[in-house]
Structure formats: C-alpha cells, structure tokens
Design brief:
Radius of gyration: 20 Å
Mean pLDDT: 81
Distance between the termini: 34 Å
Largest sheet: none
Oligomer: single chain
Number of strands: 0
Shape: globular
Structural class: mainly alpha
Length: 320
C-alpha cells in the first residue's frame, strides 16, 4: 500500500522520497515542462530568474530545496513527538502536495522561505525542553527576519514566534527584546547593503502590497485537489486535537495559526496564486490524517483522487 510504506522511519523511505523527487525533476527537464513562475519582489529575484533560465541548474536547485524541506518536516515531527510513532508520513504528505501543485520545478522565493520556515519551527518547538531558551528565541526571530527580507509579507509570521514564546515558557521582558533584536538584525543588514550600493530607495519596493489574488482557470483544479485531501484531514485533525498531550496541543495550535496566517497572506499578496505558501502547515495536517486513520483504504482512495485531479491540472497547464 502506498501510505503504509511510509509508516516507518527505515532508511529506504527517505531514499524513496529522494528517488521520487529526482524522477519528477528529471522528467520535467527532458520534457521541457514550462509552468508559469510566480514572481516576487526581492533582492534575490534577478539571481533566481538567471538560475531558472538554465533548465538543469533550476531543476537541480529545485530538487535540493524540495528534498531538504521534505526530510526536515519528518525530522520536525519525529523529534518533537507530534506523531505517535516515528515515520516519514509527514514528509510523504509534503512531497505529495508539492508535486501536486506543479510549482516545484523552479527555484522561487517561496521554496526558500518554506525551507527556512521548517527550520524555524524545528527550533521553536524545542523551546519547552531546552535550557538555551534565549538562543532559540533569537534564532527563530532571526529566521523570520530573513524570510521577511526575502518576501516582506512574511513579517506577520513573527506572531508565530510570539505565540510560541507565550505558550512554551514564562515570558520576561528580555525575551521580547531578544526576539525583536533577532528579527531586526537581517533587516538592518538589508538596509546597510542597500545604503552601501547607493540603492536605499529600493526599500520602497520591499514594503508589502495588499490586493486580492488572481486565480488562473488551471489553478482552480489544484485548489479542488487540495480541498479533496485537506478538508477531511482537517476534520480528523480537529476531532483528535483534545486527545493530545498539552505540549503537543500547543504545537498543533501553532500549526493551525500558521495555516491561517499564511492563507490570509496568500489571499492578499496580489499577483497569481501560489499554493506553495501553505504547504508546510497543510502537510502536517494531512500527515496526521495519514497517521491516525485506521482504515488505510480511505487514505489510499483520497491520495489516488488527489493524484488524479492533480494530473489533470498538469495536462491542462502543459497544453494551455
């Protein structure tokens, strides 16, 4: 069974995940798949555009980003005991959703931010059991600062760090100061760099803009596929929420808050829809669904349905 194979932490499972990533990326290169790339205002955008102009470089770096994020999600869940048993189901859920969106073929600001977001959650979720709380707060806030430099809309993710601090420890004034210092340090480097290159006026391009997203016809197909998999997963997630230990409930509450913030950010970010924005919290919800459902036939059916609808999106996007 497809889902049952990933219900373990054997070495063969991450190797299989890598093989899937590599196979899809290799296929995208030899068939010259050409999906529309989501543009983003960033100091790195010119470099990213240059990389994406080279098919093999784009596919290789895209593979590295997706695979690292996939594995780190499994590490996050297993080390923080979010799942009952250690497995790569959450990694499989992320890879499944990522391949279904069709946005993994290129290097993008969002794919980089997703990797940084997983690292941030990995640091933040170790706050309750760590003796180096100040270091974790500074690191988590600093990662949000870097993500905000890459995409200014990520500034609202500081709410996640602050909620985590309040949830996991007794808050002191030093914690807030350390958090703000960690967040503003990357922003300070950005302003200093722009000033050094006499481009301080570019700060205006960094400020977030708000407008309703525009959804292409083919993107509605992906939204339907996501809904078919995510909605039943969310229902199971909420129904089992009260059965978790207190610390796990706080972590899952942060995941839901993260999903809400990223969804609002996605809706009001303007431009074309980029479902990649919500993949991290969505994959954790879907992974818990895969882990907790006793009847594997249900998960298998939903996965196959998701793959069918996503394949139709690939067909429409490829020939449009």
């Amino acid at each position: 069974m497809l889902v049952n194979f990933f219900r373990s932490d054997r070495t063969v499972v991450p190797l299989t995940l890598f093989l899937i990533c590599f196979s899809v990326q290799f296929f995208s290169v030899i068939t010259a798949v050409d999906f529309e790339l989501i543009q983003s205002q960033s100091a790195l955008q010119l470099s990213i555009d240059w990389i994406n102009a080279k098919a093999f470089a784009s596919a290789a770096l895209g593979l590295i980003l997706v695979f690292l994020t996939t594995i780190l999600i499994g590490v996050l869940v297993n080390t923080c005991n979010i799942s009952i048993r250690k497995s790569f189901l959450f990694s499989f859920a992320f890879l499944l959703l990522t391949l279904g969106t069709g946005e993994h073929f290129f290097v993008s600001i969002q794919s980089i931010c997703n990797l940084l977001l997983v690292i941030m959650l990995l640091r933040l979720f170790h706050l309750p059991n760590s003796a180096a709380a100040k270091s974790i707060i500074f690191d988590s806030s600093g990662l949000i600062g870097i993500m905000s430099v890459l995409d200014s809309g990520n500034v609202f993710l500081m709410i996640i760090v602050w909620v985590g601090i309040v949830s996991f420890k007794s808050v002191t004034l030093n914690d807030w100061i350390i958090s703000l210092c960690g967040f503003f340090l990357p922003c300070l480097y950005l302003i200093a760099g722009l000033y050094f290159f006499d481009s301080i006026q570019e700060v205006n391009n960094w400020l977030p803009t708000f407008s309703i997203i525009k959804i292409q016809d083919s993107k509605y197909i992906v939204l339907l596929a996501m809904a078919l998999l995510f909605i039943p997963a969310l229902m199971v997630f909420i129904s089992n929420y009260a059965q978790k230990a207190s610390i796990i409930r706080k972590m899952l509450g942060i995941v839901l808050l993260l999903f809400v913030i990223l969804t609002v950010k996605m809706i009001f970010s303007g431009g074309e829809l980029s479902i990649t924005t919500i993949l991290i919290p969505a994959s954790i919800v879907v992974g818990l669904f895969f882990d907790q459902i006793k009847k594997v036939i249900i998960t298998e059916s939903l996965v196959l349905l998701f793959l069918a609808v996503s394949s139709y999106y690939y067909f429409v996007a490829y020939f449009s």
